[in-house]
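Protocol step 4 of 6: structure prediction from sequence.
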Amino acid sequence: MGDRLGTLDAAFVLVEREGMPMHVGGLAVLDSAARPGGPIRPAELRRRLRSRVRELPLLTARLVPPLGIGRAAWTPDASFDVRRHIEQWTLAPGSGWPELLQLAGDLHARLLPRDRPLWRMTLIDGLPGGRQALVTTTHHAITDGVAGVEVTQAVFDRPAHLAPSPAATDGFFGAAGRTGGLTRALQAAAGAARYVAGGPVVAPGPFNGAVGPRRVLATADLRLADAVTIKRRLGGTVDDVMLAAVALALGAHLHRLGLPVDGRRLRTMVPVSTLAGGGGLGNHVTATFLDLPVGLPPVRCLHEIAAAKSLHRTWHEPHGIRALLDTSGMAPQAVVSPLTQLLCALPFAHLIVSDVPGPAEPMSLLGAPMVAAYPLMPLTPSVGLSIAVVTIGGAMGVGVTTDPDLVAGGRDLARDIEAAFGALLDAARH
C-alpha cells in the first residue's frame, strides 16, 4: 500500500459511481494553424507526456481499494503506459462549437477506469480554421482547481514562470489563511459553529434533485481587465464581481423559466483554497456557503455579496468547515462511507461556484497557442449546476456544467452570465 487518501480526496472516491463521475477537467482550444508543424499529432502529445508526467507522482499511481476499515491508497502503477491515457477524436465535417461542446460533455460524463491512473487527455480535430481542442480529465481525488495548474504544467509549454495573476487572486476564493495554536483552534470552532447554526442542509431549489448521468456544457468569455475596472469603480474584489454576475444571471434564468426572483436567495457552495502557494497534488481546499441574491439591481447585488463575504470571513467559516472535514477523517471508514454518501445525497447547496486562478501569461501546447480555456466541473448527487471560471493570460473562461434532465437551459445561462457581467461593466463606466 502507498499513500492513503486524505479525508476530502477519499470522499470524492466514495461518492463516485456509474453516472456520477467525480473528476475535474478543462477544455482548451488550440490555434494549431499558427503552429509551424501543423496540427498536433497524438504521438507528439505522448512524447511530451512521457517526458513530464513522472514529475507528478499521482499521475503514475493507481488507486488501491481499502482493506478492512482503512481508506483507499495510491500505489505506483507498474504497468503505467501513457498510451492508455490519450485519445483522439475527429468531429464530423461542418462541425463547430455546439458539436465540440456536445462531445466534451459526453467525455466529461464518462468514468475514468480504475485499473490505471485516474486521468485522461483527449485531442479533438475537425474544428473550423484548423484549430484543435484538448479535453483534460483528472479525478478530483488527485487534484483541486489550484493544483490543476500543476497538471497543466505537465503537458503545456513552460513559460518563464507560471504564477497566478495577482489581480485574479485578490478575493475570497484565494487562500483561507493560516494561524497557529489556540487562535486557529478558536477560529475553527467559531467557523464550525456558524456553519452548523446556518444549517448544513437547505430546502431544495430549482437545481436540486436526483442528478442523472448526462452532462451538458456551456461556456462564456469574460475579460479580467473589465472585472478589475468593475471592482475598482464599484468596490469589492474580482471574485465578488464574478459572484455578482452569477447571481444576476441566475435571476434572469429563473425569470425566463417563470420562477419567482424577488427576495430570493440561492445557497451557493464556494470552494476556498487553503494554500497561499503551491502545495502539490491532492485537495487543499475548504468551502464557504453564500446566499446569493438573485433579484437585485447590479450594483446593489455586488455590494450585498461583498458584505456577506466579509461577514463569513469574520466568522472564519472556511476554517470551521475544514476542521469538520479533518475531524471526520478520524472516524472508521465503515462509518464515514455511508455518512458521506448520505450527506451528498441531501441538498447541501443549490449550486456550486468556483474560481481557479491560472497563469498571468498566455499558454501554448507544443507551439500551438491556446486561444481559450474553460473549466469542466463535477456535479454531486443532489446539485445539478456547477459554474467555474479560470483566468489565463487576462481571459476569464467560464464553464457551466449541468445535468440537462434536471436543469433546463444551461447554455442560455452562460449567455446570461455574459450579459450580467456586461451590466456590471456598464454601471462601472457610468
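Step 5 (inspection) to follow. Residues 166-181 have pLDDT under 50 and may be disordered.
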